Protein 1
Amino acid sequence: REVTLLVNTAWSRMGCFLSKNVPQGEFRIEIVSSHSKTYQGKKTAHHGQAAKVRLHGTEGHTDWIALKEGGKDATFVDPMVVGLSGTVWQVDLVQKTDSPPWFVEKVLVVSDDETIIFPCYQWIVEKVNLRPSAATIPQKDLAKAQQSRKAGLEKKKGIYQWEQWEGLPSIFSGTFDSLPLSEVWSDNKAHDFQDTTMEVKKDFMLDLLAGVFRVWDDFDDYEDLFHTLSLPKVGTKLWKSDVEFGRQKIQGAPLNQIRRVEAIPQNFPVTTEMVKEFLRKDKTLESEIEDHRIYLLDYAIVDGLPCHGPKEKLKQRYQAAPLVLLYVNGDDNLVPIAIQLNQIPGEDNPIFTPHDSEADWMMAKIFSNNAEFAVHQISEHFLKTHLATEPIIVAMHRNLSSNHPLYKLMHPHFRYQLAINCLARNRLLVEACLTLSS
């Protein structure tokens, strides 16, 4: 999967670099580029002929050296001739402005004494400065390296700028299109997204065609939705179970939303008579509360949230704001025993229990899960995961050079996140969702 662009010789058969191939007092440069990376549909592994490299040593730097394709005549850099001596502390790569971007994984500088690895893992669009893989804090770096770090950070501050949202964390001020290429997934990753989307669309179209010729009669017809996609593992009969419903609450997204009940909320008038059959023998709702067996999920945060389709011409949609009473039964399973779909009690807002018909009780649980998804996606996931970490990502780029220990520790965990956040803000959110998040 890798193509190695060489300024001199090829890899050894074992994948090692043989120092005997390098004349005394000279450097050998090898550049590793991923053959699988593409940009706008074009492979970029062979664009090395449009690039140049420069080495920085403790006593100066070389001239710009035009790169040659692997297998061509060897080119060596004599540090004494060009005034380069001591340890190589920086490698510069530059690509012609009219050339396609070139994805470089790393640069290796080999001498008789050592092989220094300069990680890159980014697209080369213009000039980039690479530092050795060994992490270094600024105060322990060379004086020249400290100047280079400062200049690099000033440049990054012009790219990674702040934007303030009222009531929300500060974010990256740009758009998806203004992100550096190193923040955006390659065509390969984009194709994965497209393939998944097309698979879902194909399955959805088959559902529409099937719906023209038949009518849904029961919940088992749900399985017929999965023509090309795999049926979820909780499919078939399992998803109907009250025990499975409770398991998902403590082993899934709502875990940090469940609250132990000290008293039944006034807007959720559940009584012992309503649920007595589901309690332990001779127990009341009040006694089970005292025994810490009653828990509540309250989705008041989505009450009154405007809902509509992705286009204004689509019909109005509706979002329940349920209250769900959960109970640890005699078998120590957490199960639902009462669900009210909206916040204000009344004749038009009944409390559903397992006493109701299978269809009514199932629909109450479905509406509850739908509210859970809305809260999780916007608040728990987007706000508390994506938006909460975005200020850290922007601050990292503005204040830490690429060879700072903390940068090396954090950067792999933030891969593609700015790109995902920018797309989510533009495509998934409306003003009401931002209000919910704040």
Note: The radius of gyration is 30 Å.
Protein 2
Amino acid sequence: DIEGDDVIKTLIQGLRNNSMITSLCLTYLNIHSEGSKALKQVLLENKTLRVMVLDNCIKSIEIAEVVAEGLQNSAGVTQLRLNNIKGDDIFATVIKRLSYN
């Protein structure tokens, strides 16, 4: 696994004002506190991001809660793929919201 906070913080800088990117696939990143907060912020701000893939990235309930909050209130995400993560029950409300959109 790659330490994901630095990767995510770099990605976030590029995604903040980018209206071209519609999909973001993160796999095997070890997301910690700073990375989850940065990811939540971009989910809230970026209105063109539609597809989010998080595979093998969320390894604790605390991180799952932060990311789920960002997804629950995201500006544009309509499709989500989660594989091999902790806190899958936390994402249940996010999945319900996405399935109604």
Note: The chain has four helices and five strands.
